[in-house]
Amino acid sequence: MKRYNLLIVLLLLIFNVTTAQKKNSPAADLSILKETKTKIENTVPLVITHLQTIADKEADNNIVTNGKTALSKEYGILESEWFLYRNNMKNCILNNSSKKAKKCMEYHTLYLRNTLINYNNYIINLTRKNGYLGVEGDTKFDFKPAEIATKLSEAYFNANDAAARMKGGQKKDFLGQTMSDDNKLTPFGQLAP
Are 165 and 19 in contact (CB under 8 A)? Predict the structure, then answer.
């Protein structure tokens, strides 16, 4: 009889250790949100530097002014979609069964991916070699929409699995971090004064 009690205690201990490891593992890690935010924000000064190079070459500051206005519009579209994406993904997990949550998340990730691709195409066309007014050199961006969308999708799918092991309040707090100011894109005006 004592052997069985000891076996049960050992099994419970193993179960608790593995569960604790899962909760502290990358399965519950949403740091990719901050990484994505940084990658998006880093594109703005690079594009503006490129526009300034063109403006200096052509002695026409309207190039920078008009470029900033156009870039601001594209950035604004991405900023809105980034907010919607984080909120929708959180709601997919909170308000659906696991199977429905995955379909919901796939839909919103696809939409964000398309928005990222549109933004990427815009900044690449604006800054490519021999592009606008033939400025020499390519501006290199650490911005790959498909890779970003894949990593975000994996993080949210893992977050969905982690949230399934949590109770109501824990789950809301855990998923609430996605909407924190730390993950919000910096307004364009602060990135490009």
Answer: yes
